[in-house]
Amino acid sequence: MEARGVCDAPYIEKGAHALSARATASEGGVLACAQGRIRNVEALAGELGLPREKRDGAQIVLAAYARWGEEYFARIEGPVLTAVIDRDADVLVLSRDRMGEKRLFYTQDGPAVAFADHPDLLLEAGCARPVIDAEGLAELFALGPARTPGKTPWRDVRALEAGCALIVRDGQARSRRYFRLEAREHADDALQTVEAVRAMIERAVEEIAPLRPAAMLSGGIDSTALTFLLRQRMDHVDTFSVDYEDNARHFRGTAFQPERDEPYIELAVERLGARHRRVVLTQAALAGALGEAVNARGFPGMADVDSSLLLFAREIAPFARCVLSGECGDEVFGGYPWFRDARCLSAEAFPWSGSLELREGVLKKRVREKIGVREYVRRTLADAVARVDHLPDESAQDRCLRTMQHMCFEFFMTNLQERAAAMCESAHLEVLTPFSDERLAQYVYNTPWEIKFLGGREKGLLREAVGALLPESLRYRRKSPYPKTCSPEYARIVSQMAREMLADRASPLPALLDAQKIAELAASELPAGATPWFGQLMAGPQLLAYLWQVNEWMRARRAEISL
Questions:
Q1: Which of 58, 165, 214, 304 has the maximal Cβ count within 10 Å?
Q2: In the beta sheet, which residues pair with residue 114?
Q3: pLDDT digits over 160-182, tens only?
Q4: Does the model's pTM come out above 0.90?
Q5: What's the CA gap between 473 and 478, in Å, rounded?
Q6: Which helix (H) or strand (E) holds 214?
């Protein structure tokens, strides 16, 4: 077997183990790598008898493998990737953290396996060809920017799923799941549940407080509660918020985004006594960073929802090495609109996928027939539903909501986690997401929905758990997603970018698109309240920006289409 690690290297020599030297440890024929933050370092070091100078991640992984063999990864907690190459035993072990905060990609060619934390590294190193087949196009247009767990749009590149390890022995690879959210009986009453959740959130914040992070503050319940808890453990907190040029003038409330963040941020900052910086992005900068966002993620993403975070993170990076984010709060506590109505779960489409008619309509007839958008979505959805565990006595409503939440973790949250990690890492900033702590997620996953919706409110359980921290106006603020631009200037810019893409004969994507349909979209008013392409934020302008991102991603990597 030839194991080729490409975690941090821009290029590797054939047959070499090009892992970052600062993240590796070796002994005899065994090389170990850790990338990320091991939460239980002290407990493991004590159990393994490691001296103080040998308590970095790679040394922990090396010693854990020596003690527990190929199953070592089940003992390691926290957002960390690990790799062990045992040349004497001809074994490679890769593991990804339980909740998927870190990314890991791999490709196999016969007995040779290559892996990296960014998909472009596998292409640049010549380990995989940039081929997109019908399934890859379906990932982009039927599900994108979400992806099926384990898949990427590249034919030859796989993603290791969260809570999984890849074990390669004698050239044979097998994936082993060591963590998943399980259906369990919930024995605690509402008061006990509130107290348990409060303690878990406090513990998660306590564990990251020594990193002295800054905080992304939106004025919503998720980021505000975490920032208040962080402030209790630090003498001061630097907070940051993001907005857009002329957004106050053009903002119109919608069911998805009912009000602006600014008044709530100001109240939170006043109560926190925080040192606050407000980042205002221009429409030109937002559109101009779309290509950089693709490079950071390695795939087309959430258009300006990605590029804005990339620019935002760059403004934070000079002041902090780490930043606190409220990401994953909606998935854990049931904050999205589709959790309020179990009827949103159908057998035809994911509730966040927007209009399948729109997804089909942007493609040429021969292309959509070849990839089968609707059938691909139905098949992927059916497979996802089949993977969900249920309790024997669950009601039909509870079964439906559990299924919805499990799929939200697998498809929706992983996309947002990838966005947060990739954009921040590109800006040399580590994002910290306490709500993705698997101990909290597992506990709340099995909490009855009447407790999750305490008081008849979305995320009612979270609001009760952190209630003593916050003024009522912050505690009971209606959910509002990550802020996006409302300016018609941004729509004008991306419409022009789309027209230029269609007119450029070197653009690869127009060969797959219904050019007349895209031209009509680009010439329309692109109303912000139109049916989103994905989630709550990707409406008309973001759809055009997404298509531009797909084209740029294909062009820059010289993608080959195989239909």
A1: 304
A2: 4, 107
A3: 999 999 999 988 999 999 999 99
A4: yes
A5: 9
A6: strand 214-216
